[in-house]
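fwd from M.: "can u put these together and see what the complex looks like"

so here's what she sent:
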Amino acid sequence: MVYINHILGDKVMLDEVLKANENFVKNFEPKKMSHMPQKKLAIVTCMDTRLTGFLEPAMGIERGDAKIIKNAGNAVVGRDVIRSVAAAIYALGVEEVMVVGHYECGMANVNSEKLTETMKMRGVDEETLSGVNIDEWIGAIGNEEENVIKVVEKIKESPFIPEDVPVHGLIIDLYDGKMKVLVED
Ligand SMILES: [Zn+2]
């Protein structure tokens, strides 16, 4: 049903969000905050829904403390993550970077054949997909821990990232919130 609604272009969530926002604003005490991260920390993590409202308290991070860069599978595909980390360092005073993966990641073991089929079904034409390695394009990962280690390396190896900024790699358990250090820089 959701699928059909989206195809027809219905605003499934917009009204609900706007109503929630109205209530939020009514009860919120506005305050001015600096855009500089108070803990001088940047975090590269996954867009997984289960990390929302979970990762920050699990790391002792509050509003205003850290730059959080999220994408599918906390991956570095193309230049966008490097761009954001660089902006965090050079423009926003970040002095330490953490790549935080999680177990049971939706980007692990992506079925690229199925994904390609779905893309075609939704109107992406053959020509667009021809010659594209979908696994690479979407940033599919094999093992979550190995991915964190690889992403730490990619950030550290980038010529745009200064050598004196430590880049650590960690992984969080979505069930109990326990974190494990994979790379201590
Ligand atoms: Zn994930």
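replying to her w this: The two ends are 48 Å apart (CA to CA).
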